[in-house]
Amino acid sequence: MRLEKCWFCSSTIYPGHGIQFVRNDAKIFCFCRSKCHKNFKMKRNPRKVKWTKAYRRLHGKDMTQDSTFEFERKRNRPERYDRNLAENTLKAIKTIDKVRSERAAKHIERRLKGKKGKERREAAKELEQSIHLVKAPSILQKEPSLTLPTKVKVSQQQTQENQAMEE
């Protein structure tokens, strides 16, 4: 079973799926869905479209350099079948997949760590700029008009009027 990569978004294309576009110079472009094909026809750059792998790699959102990517590369050289080699390869694929997922999780964790620090700095800056909006609890006790009312008194006359309007 031959799995191909989408030219635009780099997702895998399974047999029987997707669209192939052959240009006049005989270059073949494979697309996973019509969304990718339409973006290609509109001459959009995959590195500038936010949902593509190329954008995510370029802007540091996905891992770009890892030794596990070496195993995923396409090889066109035919090799003689060897049962032991095939068995060892299948075992190695499982461990490689496990290592890749752990490294990806670590990469995401490192990426988000910087974001949390940035959010804290922004919150501190905003608080510093608008400290006049924040009132001390002692002032709220002295001036109850600053707090929201907790109970609303309704007279008997108003309730009777409401009931009469409903009828």
Describe the protein in words:
- This protein starts with a strand and ends with a helix.
- Strand 3 (about 20) and strand 4 form a beta hairpin.
- The strands form 2 sheets. Strands 1-2 form a two-stranded antiparallel ribbon.
- It is mainly alpha-helical and about 170 residues long.
- The protein has helices at about 35-40, 55-60, 85-130, 135-140, 155-165; strands at about 5, 10-15, 20, 30.
- Helix content is about 45%, strand content about 5%.
- The protein has 2 domains: about 1-60, Roll (Ribosomal Protein L24e, Chain: T); about 65-130.
- The model has no long low-confidence stretch (mean pLDDT about 80).
Order of helices and strands: EEEEHHHHH
For the biggest sheet, the summary is:
2 strands, antiparallel
Q: How does the overall form come out from the CA principal axes?
A: elongated
Number of domains: 2
Q: What structural class is derived from the secondary structure elements?
A: mainly alpha
Instruction: Tell me the fraction of residues in β-strands, as a range.
Output: 5-15%
Unreliable stretches covering 5 or more consecutive residues: none
Largest sheet, order of strands side by side?
1-2
**How many extended strands?**
4
Provide the residue-averaged pLDDT: 81
